[in-house]
Fold this protein.
Amino acid sequence: MPRPTALALLLAGLMMALPGVDSRANEPVDLELVLLADASRSIDDAEIRFQREGYVAAITHPDVLAAIANGFLQRIAVTYVEWGDETWQDVVVPWTLIDGKESAGDFASKLLAAPRRATGPNSIGSALAAAQALIEGNAIEGTRRVIDFSGDSAYTQGGLPVPEARASVLAAGITINGLAILCRQADCSGRPVGYDLESSFAQFIVGGPGHFVVTADDRQSFAEAVQRKLLLEIAGSPGAVEAAERVGVPRRLHSR
């Protein structure tokens, strides 16, 4: 019998260590979605707040709720995770079934109330592995499975190598989409310098059917970018990106 790989052992350990699902587990959903948000040391507390507020505004937006209601099963499962170094993948809000305004509001309230815990340098590979473990260990049956990765850097420091983690996620049939936080404002601590963050996300991080990268140039555009991304992810069909473009959804997009 072949010996388990280090990645397989890590995933098994993460499935045991990370918080479980809510009492409505095993219920089918249109989408399993891990919101994997950057909380590394380049992200200050104000940026943590505006990231969370952006996701709150998006998940409770009437257009997003309408997209959920238009799904075949009319519900999605969402968890919010903040990641830092290889030891910090904090499940801020555990798996929650969202099927309307009330459940979306409950998710939003929990997200805003939780303290920040994750910190440390970037460990993107470990974050992706944690997201995969959350999806594979949750007992929820999603028609589609997506990791929604956001960050202000494509560089990693320690932990699981990104190519290994990414390959494992894609082999499991999970799509990785990206939100590149460009942070061009003077007071933004996470401003990347010297390389194209969007292209780096497109080349090294995202993948899977219909994957894409959207960008947020500043604090004001973050909520809009999150909303665009959620609408595309919830729509889920291979033509979702093109359909959004036809109806005038503004975005910057890399796809392959």
